[in-house]
Amino acid sequence: MRLSQDPGWSALLAAFAQAWGASPDGGSAAIRAHLDDVTSRLAAAQGRDPACLPRPPEPLPVTAQLPAALHAGRTGPAAPVSRALAAVASRLTWEWGYTTLPEDLARSYGYCEILGPRGPVQDDGLILGFVLFAPGTFYPPHAHQGIFESYLSVAGHWAQNDGGVEQPGSLVFNPPGTRHFITTGHNGPCLLAYAWVGESAKLGNPGMVLD
């Protein structure tokens, strides 16, 4: 099946395109360049009408928090993303991405890739997906070498490196090698959409390691 034949994935990628395309850059040339790179790569991917590979749905302990996160996000600034995700929620493959991780993090964290080398929508120059955190999660320090990363807040409140509280609609940009950790608020789950840009070899094998 191709992307154009799958209304669910098509609508979700269209919501990503709208969200990153409309996100303000705060006057930062680096953020503007990243936003433009994400939207241009996504438009190119959509134009190629990539294959959609069937991946078996896979829950994790944290996905029990997903309905509450989607409910919170459906009326916020990132509502189109939350609503499009809700339409395909039963098809998501949630993962940890690490061979080992602390037991408490295994209960409170997970991510799912939507577009990228691991599909379900295939692309080798851009990864789009979601990260879900339970309330009160500490996501340990880590860095992504060779990958430009941005997070869009969909639901919940969180902080990166204790540098300020992010709310739904805000975007955080991490250039390659930026060491960062995340904490989430205690009043509800936190759902973030993310974009990774990098060389295809790096995106296919990001080597995720927690400090």
TrEMBL record:
Top-rank taxon: Bacteria
InterPro entries: DMSP_lyase, RmlC-like_jellyroll, RmlC_Cupin_sf
Protein name from the UniProt record: Dimethlysulfonioproprionate lyase DddL
Molecular functions (GO terms): dimethylpropiothetin dethiomethylase activity
Keywords for the protein's UniProt record, in alphabetical order: Lyase
Organism annotation: Neotabrizicola shimadae
SUPFAM superfamilies: RmlC-like cupins
